[in-house]
Design goal:
The complex is a heterodimer of chains A (203) and B (419). Chain A is built from eight helices and eleven strands. By secondary structure, chain A is an alpha/beta fold. Chain A folds into two domains: 116 residues, D-Maltodextrin-Binding Protein, domain 2 (3-Layer(aba) Sandwich), CATH 3.40.190.10; 82 residues, 3-Layer(aba) Sandwich (D-Maltodextrin-Binding Protein, domain 2), CATH 3.40.190. The longest helix of chain A has 13 residues. Chain A is elongated. By secondary structure, chain B is an alpha+beta fold. Chain B has a nine-stranded mixed β-sheet with strand order 1-5-6-12-11-10-7-9-8, sandwiched between helices. The two termini of chain B are 46 Å apart. The chains are: A alpha/beta (203), B alpha+beta (419). Chain A: Its main location: cytoplasm.
């Protein structure tokens, strides 16, 4: 039996949709259920519904063989897993945003939930910045002078707009990824490849 | 808050009791298997000059060195692995010893930072190096040996993934060096999405070849995977690597371990010195590899003694999490005595020790049974009375004592002289 960790929240609807199209039987209440473990006996798959940020951890330690999670979280956690597929949904942009007169090349303090992305992006520009690590409402930081700009995910751009901020530069494009545990990728190669093939065929 | 002198440096651990006995047992079993394949033990210093490691490690690995300074200000490093120090010894001390050389070790290694998975700063590696043997049979020997060792430890479900550095390099070779480096890094990071994204940006590559490049890293399997590798091979170098793979499998088959292995065309081990077949071993109860190794035909040359070589190491702390069985615990006995019964207590203890019991003796000032905690759980406890009798609730100890008294062993046994 394969264990697959799925990220709850933003991507779960698209994930379930994709799994169904790919021939995996999920219960009808899959998206609403409060159960954390769901078994599909026919396909011999067990799904774990986890907090997105924990999915890479489950897979890295082998508690799950496979996982579906956003690239933003995957990169930020730096998990040691096999990254097998770009699933093409959950598409988002990670941007530098701030008041529109901000000069990105002169920024020194950046507030973000994504310290790794932020540090790497500015290092590529030859800038060593101070990262202010926040857990949420990152848009607040430039308004109260905590940071000059932010690095954050943007879907529609409405939150930025309503707080008088604009996207100044793109850091990365992210989408949902299928990842595999290192042991499972080798020891359960046939099952893993079958899962990959099904998801790949139904893009 | 605890003062710092009560803490361990981060990434280290204390080991004792059953865990430590199990670890020692694992090391002993592995060394016994190494010896049974004709490997001698070797020990090298915990510290080497950084220049020594620079011969074998690339930039990011050198950043991870645990560095210190000697009195003249030269930079030393705690060894991050054993292959490079062994290569140094083989090129210097053993310069005139004919190859093939078979060397083995169980040694602690160090890295400066806790890595991913909170990998510890201190890691025990039990491994082997086979130096001066070029044929795939040498690689098969290393794999068969590791398989034997893992079986000896009672690990039932494990597998080796086998890659080939020369195949990977040959496949990427016609591309620009900067592009190659990006693709290599994607494979090292096990990021096939990035690998394919990089390839997708290449417009001036022949589409058929592009397809080969895109497909090959995902291919894993037995002989059919080698056939697939041969189909995709672009030049003689890649074909030669396929020949080596085939021969390796023939040798593994002869060893009877072929079914424990499979080929992984995309396996890329992040060590600068690997040149040919590379290996990674997994047990089904652990999410991370338990052993790794491969062929490093260039490393000895850098120390001035050109010789092909191959080797493999197991991560002992990870084996510790994998292994169920362990050493047989000796039956532990705790004897208490009053000062006047000292001679009797010591000679009975010596009698027991000769029969492989583990015996601790403690002097007490009054004759009373200590609390259960003091007797300690799982230990068999006895107390000598002022009259020279043994009080115990353990029937086995009672029987041994009675036999000891009645057989006259107490008079003739050499207990006294041993003490």
């Amino acid at each position: 039996m394969l264990t697959v960790a799925l990220a709850k929240g933003r991507n779960l609807f698209d994930t379930a949709n994709r799994l169904r199209i790919s021939g995996f039987a999920l219960p009808g209440d899959f998206e609403e259920t409060r159960r954390l473990v769901i078994e599909d006996e026919r396909m011999e798959i067990r799904y774990l519904l986890a907090k997105p940020v924990d999915v890479p951890t489950y897979v890295e330690h082998g508690a799950a063989d496979l996982g579906i999670v956003g690239k933003d979280i995957l990169h930020e956690k730096g998990a040691d897993v096999h990254e097998l597929l770009d699933l093409g949904f959950g598409f988002c942009r990670l941007v530098v945003a701030g008041p529109k007169e901000t000069d990105v090349s002169r920024v020194t303090r950046v507030a973000t939930k994504y310290p790794r992305y932020a540090t790497e992006y500015f290092r590529k520009l030859g800038r060593q910045i101070e990262v202010i690590s926040l857990q949420g409402s990152v848009e607040l930081a430039p308004l109260i002078g905590l940071a000059e700009c932010i690095v954050d995910l943007v879907e529609t751009g409405r939150t930025l707009q309503e707080n008088g901020l604009v996207a100044l530069a793109e850091v990365a494009q992210v989408s949902a990824r299928l990842v595999a545990n290192r042991r499972s990728y080798q020891l359960r190669a046939a099952e893993v490849d079958d899962f990959v093939m099904r998801l790949r065929q139904n893009r | 808050m605890h003062p710092i002198y009560l803490e361990r440096p981060s990434g280290t651990r204390d080991l004792y009791g059953q865990q430590l006995q199990k670890k020692r047992w694992i090391e002993q079993q592995m060394i016994a298997v190494f010896r049974s394949f004709g490997y001698d033990l070797i020990e090298t210093p915990m510290i080497e000059y950084v220049e020594t490691f620079a011969q074998g490690l690339h930039g990011s690995e050198q950043e991870q060195l645990y560095r210190l300074f000697d009195r003249r200000g030269r930079t030393l490093a705690l060894r991050p692995e054993m292959t490079t120090p062994v290569a140094r010894v083989v090129a210097t001390e053993f310069a005139h010893v004919a190859s093939p050389l078979r060397l083995s070790y169980a040694a602690k290694t160090y890295r400066a930072e806790e890595g991913r998975l909170r990998e510890p700063v201190e890691v025990t590696q039990a491994g082997i190096e086979l130096i001066g043997a070029l044929s795939p049979d040498a690689d098969a020997e290393v794999i068969a040996l590791m398989a034997t060792a893992l079986k000896r430890l009672g690990i039932e479900h494990f597998r080796f993934a086998i890659g080939h550095m020369a195949y990977l390099q040959a496949m990427l070779a016609p591309l620009q060096e900067t592009l190659q480096a990006r693709l290599r890094q994607a494979l090292i990071d096990r990021d096939l999405v990035r690998y394919e994204q990089i390839l997708a940006q290449e417009s001036d590559v022949d589409p058929k070849w592009l397809e080969s490049l895109r497909e090959f890293p995902r291919i894993r399997g037995g002989l059919e995977a080698i056939d697939a590798a041969r189909e995709l091979a672009l030049d003689e170098r890649a074909e030669k690597a396929c020949d080596e793979w085939s021969e390796l499998f023939a040798a593994l088959d002869a060893y009877g371990v072929a079914e424990l292995t499979h080929v992984d065309l995309g396996l890329y081990l992040d060590h600068d010195y690997y040149t040919g077949i590379v290996i990674e071993g997994y047990a089904d109860v652990l999410g991370v590899p338990i052993c790794f190794g491969g062929r490093y035909d260039g490393l000895l040359e850098r120390f001035g003694r050109g010789a092909p070589a191959t080797g493999c190491v197991a991560h002992v702390e990870r084996l510790l999490q994998t292994v169920e069985i362990g050493s047989e615990q000796p039956f532990r006995i705790h004897l208490c005595y009053l000062a006047e019964q000292r001679t009797l207590a010591f000679s009975f203890a010596a009698y027991l020790r000769e029969r492989d019991y583990a015996v601790a003796t403690s002097r007490v000032e009054v004759q009373e049974l200590p609390s259960l905690e003091a007797q300690s759980i799982g230990e068999c406890f006895g107390m000598f009375t002022a009259g020279g009798e043994l009080l115990t609730e353990d029937s086995l100890l009672q029987q041994i004592w009675e036999y000891y008294r009645s057989s006259g062993a107490s008079e003739t046994d050499g207990g006294k002289s041993i003490c």
